[in-house]
Specification:
Number of strands of chain A: 11
Number of helices of chain A: 12
Distance between the termini of chain A: 57 Å
CATH architecture of the largest domain in chain A: 3-Layer(aba) Sandwich
Order of helices and strands of chain A: HHEHEHHEHEHEHEHEHEEEHEH
Number of domains of chain A: 2
CATH topology of the largest domain in chain A: Alpha/beta knot
Largest sheet of chain A: 7 strands, parallel
Strand content of chain A: 15-25%
Shape of chain A: elongated
Structural class of chain A: alpha/beta
Largest interface: A-B, 35 and 35 residues
CATH superfamily of the largest domain in chain A: SPOUT methyltransferase, trefoil knot domain
CATH class of the largest domain in chain A: Alpha Beta
Radius of gyration of chain A: 20 Å
Oligomer: homodimer
Helix content of chain A: 25-40%
Chain lengths: 261, 261
């Protein structure tokens, strides 16, 4: 059992929880909690850590017998966990590397893509990834200024969808949007200047939606690349919707149009 | 200028930020930031507090001239503010008291009501209130076990909608749902057992949606009161949507149906 915070593995876990750069260098991220650890595929699993108390829970004995893991004292586990009341199990998991090409060349699915520009709130981004899986999104492209999708709060908000939705980190968002357009994917931006309401467009063919930063919206450079602006009507004095809510309305409109045929 | 945390007003502000019970007893809540303070109506305003630094900002001099306020030293202001980087202005504001009767007897609007049972996440509840205003919701009913809607995090997430959406605290949620039904309002519950998808129902007449707790969903007692269950279709392995996302889809479906006529 590890019970020192000077242990190199413990130090590394703390860095992985806090530093986006360290996660990127090692090509991994951390998942916490029994449910998501059980959903992890063996090929992606690097290492499991459990707390001493967790190792004594009868219910998980069978599950633990088939795995290799490291036991941390409860106080050390609490130090490395990101949650306030940790369940006592976490894992280091390898990232999947996707490219825009890989997403758009999957011809078995009609493209349904989300492009996120500089979103900052981890809860919003996690919720968008969770909803994206539910709405059948075929890929998400995020720029460098978007909050790290491997941030523990993002991971938690995805409720496991982080494993299942292809997500691409874009070095050049403009270039990647142009790649979508060259494939015949129609690019929409949610924008207050939209002429049509979002439900008046047809999303049955390849479709991508660009979503901008929570406070500032889309940059002009990126907004200019859209084929079409759509607006989400709003009553009252509301100036904008939450970014996760706006994205969800667009994704579900697309899903429902395709379901209806 | 107040510069002691033993000052009774400072003590009261700290209690109001932290204790739902104290907010309730005094019938008030706190709003923070220049934008929401400026949106506050005089009839609801109890008192404004600003930081010493804020009092010196030229831009707000005109605004401050027309008001009475108390100046707190910057360090005391930071103590009473809920935000990490406070703008330097907050206000104590009176609550509006609504009743179910008041909401449903407004015959100028077709009822579009949201019933929240035991929602726990302040960000979710705030986002729901914000989206509700945008979607033209005519009232929200929440039970006692729902997170306090006057919690500072809820207020912040509403982006001002807390002032504009009628919200009723229900002592007896079952009774209040029955009152809606007696008025001819059709009560829907978002439920995995729903037979029809949410977009297959007609919400042009008086409509209410019941939304359950993030983890546990609706209690059987409340779910049984619904006239109809609707499901939100989901691809992939997602088990449920975020509560704010699910509510938003239902509210916007209602709004869009009514806009289309």
């Amino acid at each position: 059992m590890i019970n020192s915070n000077k242990n190199p593995q413990v130090k590394n876990l703390m860095l992985l929880q806090k530093k986006s750069k360290v996660r990127k260098e090692q090509g991994v991220f951390i998942v916490e909690g029994i449910k998501i650890v059980m959903e992890t595929s063996f090929e992606r699993l690097e290492k499991i850590y459990i707390s001493e108390s967790f190792s004594k829970i009868d219910e998980y004995r069978g599950f633990l017998e088939s795995l290799k893991y490291e036991i941390l004292s409860d106080s050390i586990f609490a130090t490395v966990a990101d949650t306030v009341t940790p369940q006592g199990i976490l894992a280091i998991v390898k990232r999947n590397i996707y490219s825009v090409e890989k997403i758009i060349t999957d011809k078995t699915k009609i493209a349904h893509i989300l492009v996120l520009e500089s979103l900052q709130d981890p809860g919003n981004v996690g919720t968008i990834i969770r909803t994206a899986e539910a709405a059948g999104v075929t890929g998400i492209i995020v720029n460098d200024e978007t909050v790290d999708i491997y941030n523990p709060k993002v991971i938690r908000s995805t409720m496991g969808a982080i494993y299942r939705v292809p997500i691409v980190y874009s070095d050049n968002l403009s270039d990647d949007i142009l790649k979508l357009k060259r494939e015949g994917i129609k690019v929409y931006a949610a924008h207050l200047k939209g002429e049509n309401a979002y439900y008046e467009e047809n999303y049955r063919q390849g479709t991508a939606f660009i979503i901008g930063n929570e406070g500032k919206g889309l940059s002009k450079e990126i907004a200019d690349l859209a084929d079409c602006y759509v607006k989400i009507p709003m009553c009252g004095e509301v100036e904008s919707l939450n970014a996760a809510v706006a994205s969800s309305l667009l994704m579900y409109e697309t899903m429902v149009q395709r379901l209806k045929g």
